[in-house]
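Q: Okay, next protein. This is Type I restriction enzyme endonuclease subunit from Holdemanella biformis DSM 3989. I've checked the sequence twice, so it should be correct. Can you predict the 3D structure?
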Amino acid sequence: MSSNLGYESEKTLEDNLIKQLCADGYEFVEINDIDDLHLNFRKQVNKHNASRLNGHELSDKEFERLLVKIQGKGVYGSSKTLRSLQDITMDDGSTQYIELFNTKNNEWCKNEFQVTHQVTMVGKYENRYDVTLLINGLPLVQIELKRRGIDFKEAFNQVIRYKKHSLNDLFRYVQIFIISNGIDTKYFANSDKEMDFQYTFYWTDKNNNRIDNLYDFALDFLPKCHISKMISRYMVVDDTQKSLMVMRPYQYYAVEELMKRAYETNNNAYVWHTTGSGKTLTSFKLSQLLSTNREVAQVFFLVDRKDLDSQTIEEFNRFQKDTVDMTDSTDTLIAQMKDSSKKIILTTIQKMSNACKNDKYQDVIDRFDGKKVVFIIDECHRSQFGEMHKMIKKKFPRAQYFGFTGTPRFAENASQDGRTTADIFEKLVHHYLIKNAIADGNVLGFNVDYVRTISSTVDIEDDEEVEAIDTEEVLMDDQRISNIVDYVLKIHNSKTNNRRYNAIFTVRSIPMLIKYYDEFKKRNTDLKIAGIFTFGANEDGELETEHSRDSLERMIKDYNQMFDKNYSTNTFSAYFTDVSKKVKNTELDILLVVNMFLTGFDAKRLNTLYVDKRLKHHDLIQAFSRTNRIETANKPYGNIVCFQTNKKAVDDAVKLFSLTDNADEVLMKPYEYYRDEFRKAVEELLKHTPSPEEAEHGGDEQEEYKFVLLFRELVRLMVKLKTFDEFEFTEDELGMSNQLYEDFVSKYKKIYRDIRPDQQKTSILSDVSFDIELLRNDKINVHYILELIKNAVSEPSREKRRKTLDEIEKMIESATDPELYMKSDLIHGFIDSIASEMDPDADFEYEYNQYMEEQRTNEIREVAAKYQIPEPKINRLIGDYEFGGFVDKNDIKTDLTKDVIKREKEENNFSSSMRAKNSITNTITQFIKDVVIKYM
């Protein structure tokens, strides 16, 4: 059946979707408001729990007790509640257990499925939701639609707005959101936290072919058994982060295939999912599901010792608390194996090998004789597992081995003994390649620069010629090292977006690392640079004048001075952990390494890799992939700067691990391509909006909307252009002068600031993604502005002071720092009423803090008077939120008088006093949150 859904109006799109769902067995139910929602929920709960209740239907009081028990929680709390039985005291004093959702294995189809549309919910404002899927009366899936031609990201922005305004009550139980414009469709998990578009996913088939048409998506993703299976089996309630996650399609298919392999065969298998695609979650979900099967006696999750860093431990413990054995003691592993309650054990390959070798542990290992044991091997391309595989296999004859890797071993990159990943793990059951991940927006592509640092007579694409001069003498030459350091210092700011991001610099040996470190230090640069490597008797080489441990000791001493720490080579593990955190938090600008941090290390704010060594095959892809984690649109790709590795090695590795002959699917296009795209975008913009003065188009929202879309594209291209060395902002080069661009930026920001998404009459621009973050100037923040004001106040000349303050006020208007935006009115007020007349010798900090305290008091006083709530109580609620992050809405409601509620009801035409009461409560709650941010 063909579909024209993408070409129809939003209403027709909605009607056709509902028709399709009803044909698939959903019951259509008319639900208009919260009262209808509760009434329907009551009917469905009774129906679903008929056997538990022996045909009894919940009375008014019993149902009220159930509502009280399950309401008033956030998304995380509601998700926990959804998956557990609810004990309710019945009118006769007995206790009954009510099931909200059947999540049992293969029983998820045994729920009650309904579909409704245009439910009206009232919170801060009134909103109507497009299509809602209800399971047992609870709204678990919310679908928001936009007509064809509208960017479906606007549906995402609408979801965010609804969450702020009215997605409350039983809608807190929404597990999955779906957004579509008919031709593009994505899904994502609900959250209490700020939601990010990068965590929205396309659904695919098993071969990673995207299913983005809404009609096809509904056929594949929304059948009753599948959507309930996704919610019950393929979502993760993360108790550490207090969040909800939904698995991506390739994760789903991998787990399904491996589960089938475990239950139907005794054969091994492996999954090839590219680095950065979330193998940890996939493998742990598999572990979790296998551990619930009675036929599986034990699940062992094996990692290499060098991968068991603080990040890995934290990641694994998120999904299964206290699973990770962080000790080096094999006795600890044996103790875990004796504990029958621990069906999942995460340990190192080395410790498992020791346990198998040592006869004193044989009695414990014998307990698994004849029983089915599953070994899940992380980073299974590593040669260590191949070496230890036979030994472990002898001790666990009925074991199955499931491997996960982002870079398998093939014939081209076989291990030292000549074996491939398939030789050990037999069958590849699912793959998700780097080209798939880039196309889906799950990882970034790479922008690779090749910098010649050796004789110009050598063909750097010719391996034989390079190898002929590939000697320590040439590569360690003082002048070469010095030239490269000069080059890095020249390009580092542009590569890292003015140090918003940071870099790893990997070199071929410890002596080279030491030489680079000393050369950087000579420059007295303000870059924060650290070095890390493992030392020992069998290291790659030593400097004649200094042992490498002594070299590392002085690097750590510099690090201690830089960050006020007290590490040494004796506390190397603690140093390693701290360096890891500093890189992730961008507190370090460049980290010098040999091999460390090039596999398994994830840092979203790391965007650049400098490479002075020869990389190929899996080592190259692993190292490059440290830079390509998704962060924001400010990070368009991972930057790679190669001083030895040549283009042929890069192309060969990319083709091998993408199963393609076209490396351009992974590698970004050259500067000239983006420059030409920018010039085309300039032409389109100027056709529609010839000058910045015309950007608002006389208040015509449709034309203003077109301007926003056209200029947004220009902004996105500018982010990419700025990372290239060739970038030069001139009219001849880009078709637009820097000044004209900045004038358009000012108008673009003004339109953004003028939108009032919280108003009841919504602008068509309210749900547009402005990507205003791309225009952010990190320098212009609250601290920076206050320093400027302080300096201006010290100016004795009133005329010069006023002129400077006027310039500062203009600067505030153009800034995009979130905290500054929130405080902009306050700072404007301070400038006009205090700073402009302040004595140059006055205590600036005292005057500013005094002004802020007065304004805070006035705002609290106004709200207290308006809603007739005692000021001390509002101050207490503010204090509770400041220190606990929670606002007790019931506490607010206790002080609301009938007169206040009546006035709110009349002013806003609310249909009931309850809605008016909720509106006031939400307004005061938001006021409390704003005060904490505004005056912190």
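A: Here is a summary of the prediction. The chain has five domains: 5-241, 249-432, 461-665, 671-750, 859-936. The longest strand covers residues 113-122.
Q: Noted. On to the next one.
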